[in-house]
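Please discuss these two lines.
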Amino acid sequence: MKDRLLIYNARIVDRDRDIKKGAILIEGKKIAGFPTKDAVKQMMADSKVSKFDARGNTVLPSFVDMHVHMRDPGLTQKEDIRTGCMAAAAGGFGTVVLMPNTNPVISSQDMAVFNDNKGNDLGFCRVIQSVSITKDFDGKTITHLNKLNNKIVPLITEDGHEVASSAVMLNAMNVAKEKKIIVSCHCEDPDLAEEARALRKKALSLLNKRKLTREDKAKAKKILKQAHEILAVAEDTATFRNIRLAQEAGVHLHVCHVSTEQCLDAIKLAKKNGQNITCEVTPHHLALNCQKGDNKFQIVNPPLRPESDRLAVVKALMDGTADLIATDHAPHTQSDKASGSPGFSGLETAFATSYTVLCLENGMSLKKLSEKMSARPAEILGLKDCGLLEEGMNADITIVDTDKIWTVHGEDFASKGKYTPLEGKKLTGEIVATFYNGKLVFQA
């Protein structure tokens, strides 16, 4: 007899169901079903069945994140696979896709498999390592793509960069189309991004002055605003280009961390025209705008946008233009953040941020949120064993308290990256417990 675990006294929610009070049975690593009240009574009296009282909280399929940085190898002072996987479990994630912008860059299937095994052996969550579009991010070499197997590497990306050459990108897309691999794009025109970086550097030199005056702060804010405006154009133009190239190649294009209304409109039109295109938005672009707190710690790529763009991102998730929520978890040391490194830790605040903004403030159902965080990313990645609570699927289960109001403190994170732009903010929705392959891997 396989190990049996009964999670009872629970609300059970996924894309397709919302059972107000029920139970879920796990046998070994799989979901065995949803026992009736009588069956639950019998199992409660059976000493061979382990029990977990959900205390009226909500059982969800664990979340699937298509965009995570674990900085391993080479940048492990920021994060490593162990701490990253612990953060994922604490955030309710059962599957994470890792970006290849490490040192060295992940540019081969063998390197990807090494990281997959390293993460999966820990047993906190499933790790899927993506591979770079060009070898070592050199912007031109794509011969390594010919050796990829989509069952092992379902996604390629130049995340953190853009492939500047349209010819190289089109050729890479043609290979990916043939191999049925997703091309995930960090859409940002490199030349415009370089201009914005120079402006950011100028602003940081002001913000890092020993004696920071009100004048310095105002000047830095103005310069950062200029940088953000350039980066909006950089995102828009690169997105338009990549949509057109992907249309030509017939490849599945996935657009990362979309943050502008114009990009969302372009993606919506491409979908309407039948193009194979999906996109993600981040919790920080859902919740925050650039109108407050412009400083050296708030830098992220793409940057926080004006309120009109934030509202467009919310609307895109509500109306289906945006397929899913991905964290773009990008941890840094405190000194890195002080020197202007872009990115935030996001795994451990993703659910609460999304639930607060989408469900409580905008009326999205919890079923729909589960679709955006679990079922849809699993479907896009071709994972048929997770994302829903169905008999025979992996017992990757997250229990959440949808009433709990809590205050964000980065020092409490399992991640090495303690900086969050949500520091001190109150959010609703706490991760109570996470099960991976039927085993408890996190409990608050």
